[in-house]
Amino acid sequence: MKNLLLSALAIAVLTFTSCSREDDSNGGNTGSVVINAADFRGELLAGQSATLDPNQVYNLTGSFIVRGGATLTIPAGTTIEATGGTSSYIAVAQDGLLYVNGTSTNPVVMTSGNAVKATGDWGGLVICGRANTNKGGSTGQTATSEVGDLTYGGTENTDSSGVIRYLRVEYTGAAFNGDKEFNGVSLFGVGSGTVFEYIQAYKSGDDGIEFFGGSVNGKYLVALHSEDDAVDFADGFSGTLENVFIKDVAKAGVEGSNNGDNGAATPTTNAILKNFTILKGSLAGSEHGMYLKEGAGYWDCQNIYIDGFTKGLKIKPATGTGSDPVANQNVDNGDITFNPIYFGSSITTNSEYAGTNTTYLTVGSNTGAGNSATTPTWTTGWTTGL
After folding, report:
1. In this structure, are residues 368 and 338 in contact, taking their beta carbons and an 8 Å threshold?
2. Which residues contact 16 (CB under 8 A, 6 or more apart)?
3. pTM value?
4. Closest to 134 in 3D by CA, of 126, 143, 125
5. Do 373 and 305 contact (CB within 8 A), yes or no?
6. Cis peptide before 317 (omega within 30 of 0)
7. Taking Cα atoms as reference points, which of 373, 335, 366 lies closest to residue 353?
8. 3-state SS string over the chain?
9. Beta bridge pairs of residue 89
10. CA distances from 269 to 22, 107, 238 (A)
11. Cα angle 211-212-216, degrees, rounded to a multiple of 5
């Protein structure tokens, strides 16, 4: 009987141990945490930190969340391979920190772990900060992220979620349904203290990179093969996006809105866009080069190069069914400008705007992201598919 009891106890211990997850073993502990590369999932809690090993391939098998007060560091050359569709994503909650330390010759790569890779194989990267959004209905309010169900927003526009450099995210955009999908990278209320540069979204099943409010600035961004919009900003976004190369887009190269429920919501989207090349490429480009949508907000666009689409700028009419009076009024008032902008030979209609402002755009011969329609030199070494 004693031997039977000992055997049963041993089985119970083995069963408990085999079922424990890496994140469960972290619970309550502070300091440095070792991540299980073979089963990368769970969370880092307040006071915990982890640094991945670039000599291992990390198999993301579920969600991994960096909670407030925790830090995840990903060295140059690290590869993360994800499986699991919508259940598999990496998220940074408010007050969490992510350091992606890629280089121009050794980027960090987050990709699909499936044998045959395809858009929508996994979720993507989600970052939530404390900067303003108008999604909550007024300045300083908070909201819940569309994916990941994390709180974002607030009044700390200089908030930092870390430093992210030389990162490539691939085969993202897993969809829950037609109205709820992941993007390559989703930034919810991310503040200007965050460094976000040299980022490529490759083969996303939805948007390549999307900004939901926030004041983060982005530099040297690439979106290639986006099955919705390539770059999207909304909900009171107030950052500067500079040096952006877009190609192969199913809908709009750039879509910018103020608020989908209330085009006049505050704080108003106030975006500065500099040095953009927007090429339709091999996909449909059905919503054209740039789409001024849902109130649009305020846009200051400089050195924009658009080609491959039939129309350069899309905007709904000021009156009538399906109209967008707020977006049109913002153009009328000079709060949306394109100086200068280049429309390629494929474009038969430069702009759908039909209002009173005749000086909101100046047509020029532009370099866009650096080399007009040709791939810019700053993409060399760390991007794919160009």
Report:
1. no
2. none
3. 0.92
4. 143
5. yes
6. no
7. 335
8. CHHHHHHHHHHHHHHHHHHCCHHHHHCCCCEECCCCHHHEEEEECCCEEEECCCCCEEEEEEEEEECCCCEEEEECCCEEEECCECCCEEEECCCCEEEEECCCCCCEEEEECCCCCCCCCECCEEEECCCCCCCCCCCCCEEECCCCCCEEECCCCCCCCEEEEEEEEECCCCEEECCEECCCEEEECCCCCCEEEEEEEEEECCCCEEEECCCCEEEEEEEEEECCCCEEEECCCCCEEEEEEEEEECCCCEEEECCCCCCCCCCCCEEEEEEEEEECCCCCCCCCCEEEECCCCEEEEEEEEEECCCEEEEECCCCCCCCCHHHHHHHHCCCEEEEEEEECCCCCEEECCCCCCCCCEEECCCCCCCCCCCCCHHHCCCCCCC
9. 63
10. 41, 31, 6
11. 55
Task: Report the length, in residues, of the chain.
Answer: 386
The residue assigned the tokens 């830090």 is 71
Residues 324-349 pLDDT 10s: 999 999 999 999 999 999 999 999 99
pLDDT bucket at 34, cuts 50 / 70 / 90? very high
